[in-house]
Fold:
Amino acid sequence: MREWPAVSGNAINGVGEAAVRRPSPVYWHPPESIPHGKLQLWFYQHTPPDPALLEARRDRQAAVEAPLDPLAETKVERSAAEWSAEVKRVALECGADDVGIAPMRAEYVFEGHPVPPQRWMVMIAVGHSYQELRTAPSMRSLIDVTRQYARGNRAAKGLANWLRRQGHDAVPYGGPMAGSFVLIPPAIEAGLGELGKHGSMIHRKLGASFRLACVLTDLPLLPDSRDDFGADEFCANCRVCADACPPDAILKEKTMVRGERRWYVDFDKCLPYFNEALSCAICLAVCPFSRPGVGERLVDKLARRRRRAAE
Structure:
């Protein structure tokens, strides 16, 4: 807490602001560029040198640093529908567990960062090992998070390289660093799920147990639609993640954040616990949608409830 800055992370995130604006960098950015940068450095400096974690981090960094293929001189031409199907097929072959397409929007880009020129965001989801994640917070769960970030980076890099070999420019991105834009809002637009009470996404099959990556491109593509399967209404009546959160950081009701009333996690409560525990993800693991086999049954139950309400 000696490293805690004078400014609140909630203020940086725009809690209570009625006007719409772009997000501000708050964590997982170059530490010298953000008020909470010393806390970010503290996290890495105090992580035990567990051999499996170090190996997972080396593997993740290798995925991040793997070179991009040169851009082929001849462009392959396909229709938007054909490209959309091919992009999803290749992404799945490269390790993605689900794929969706959304247009790039300036509102996704952090303040102070240029808006990427590419028109499309191919959003990639990679699922966790539920058995590892449910041990959170632990070294096992931290290692699995690191491994899934590596897998997301490899899937994005693999898809980008395939597109470049087709003669089309493509830029991959995968965590954990935040880059120049947020991933959850475009992933929601791309049909990969809904925002949950825990501030992370809920996917109809993966639950909250997954990570995101993406590829930016100017291919002719078709956008996907949102997948509204009832998670938002479910969260309104569920308290599992909020009750399980050790620092009580998960708000029970939606709050105004940069002009939108939505689910939000109190940054100033969450971050100290996250750093002291050397990672967390309790809320993702306890989410009812994350339990294997349970999430899909919940989706079916919510669909039946909606059908009855419509009759």
